[in-house]
Amino acid sequence: MTEKLTDQLSWEEFLKQSQKDIEITEVKPFNRLIAHSKNYFLISGYGAFTDGYVIVITKDFIPAFGLIDEENSEELNFIIKLLKENIEKSFNRKSVVFEHGMCACIGGLDRAHLHIMSIHKSSTEENLIKAINKTLYNRKAGIKYIKFKDYKLENIHDINHFVKISENKKSSDLKIVGNLLKIEDIKDLEEQKWPKITMPHINKGGHYVFFKSDFTNASFLTTHNFQTQFGRQVVFENEKYIDNIFKDENIKIQKKNEFLEPWKWQNYKFEANILNTMKVTKLFLKGLRKKHQKEYEKFEIKLI
């Protein structure tokens, strides 16, 4: 018997299981709703290794923001603006915005979801480019497979092993098919035209990854098919470069189990940050109601 898939980003379940004006003290699957608008809803994201992490999700069941109606773009951009301002003013941090479109990230049933994640206020273009390239290297992006003698190896762990060998010594028995990518290799779509520019690629059944920072050179929109959570891993690497306290805390986490990577939301939820993000973001959005009364009414923004 085939197991029934469940919608882990179900708008109906989040609405049903979130109570207005009730401060939660324990994180559960569907009680992280912060606010919602006419077409989108906002939740505090699992795996919040930095404060202020919010995910914007479509109420309609569509798999990528490249498929949203053009008339709903203004509403989306306004929400992004509010959340970036919240991170800047409430948490004294910078922010990045990213999406893995058409990813089926959580097991097959998936709605379009956009991540707004905070990064250290000292983050620079150089740090972010370094973090992006480090993530590309860690995932061996661009390498199709390794051929060793008569064996074809496609598993990422095998590829990692043999790439390290190849960096130290040459072997006539080893052939690497493909080339390691860097950020300049993956900018094949104009990120300023996200999300609509992705439509031709989506129509071919393709995935895309969108990553937007405050720096043009450290932003990209690519049709390369990376593994999921690419943006989260970039943020994680960036924090390690800049924040020694963050780096030390995650070294302690990894010492407990070196195989569980802290940037993967399935491994660590960071519950205290989730709860704090919900509380602070609700208060911030409530405080902006008078300032943006016209937009709040136009886009039917309601707080939980």
What topology emerges from the helices and strands here?
Blueprint: H1 11-17, E1 33-36, E2 40-44, E3 54-58, H2 73-91, E4 94-101, E5 113-119, H3 125-138, E6 143-148, E7 151-153, H4 156-168, E8 174-178, H5 199-203, E9 208-212, E10 220-222, H6 230-242, H7 244-256, H8 271-287, H9 293-298, E11 302-303
Antiparallel strand pairs: 1-2, 1-11, 2-3, 3-5, 4-5, 4-9, 6-7, 6-8, 9-10
Brief descriptors of the model:
HIT family, subunit A, 2 domains, eight-stranded antiparallel β-sheet, 9 helices, three-stranded antiparallel β-sheet, 304 residues, alpha+beta, globular
What can you tell me about this protein's structure?
With 304 residues, the protein is α+β, with helices and mostly antiparallel strands. It folds into 2 domains: 11-137 and 181-303, HIT-like (HIT family, subunit A, 2-Layer Sandwich); 143-178, no CATH class. It is built from 9 helices and 11 strands. The chain has helices spanning 11-17, 73-91, 125-138, 156-168, 199-203, 230-242, 244-256, 271-287, 293-298; strands at 33-36, 40-44, 54-58, 94-101, 113-119, 143-148, 151-153, 174-178, 208-212, 220-222, 302-303. The strands form 2 sheets. An 8-stranded antiparallel sheet has the order 10-9-4-5-3-2-1-11, sandwiched between helices. Strands 7-6-8 form a 3-stranded antiparallel sheet, covered by helices on one side. α2 (73-91) crosses α8 and α3 packs across α6 (230-242). The chain is globular, with a radius of gyration of 20 Å. The mean pLDDT is 91.
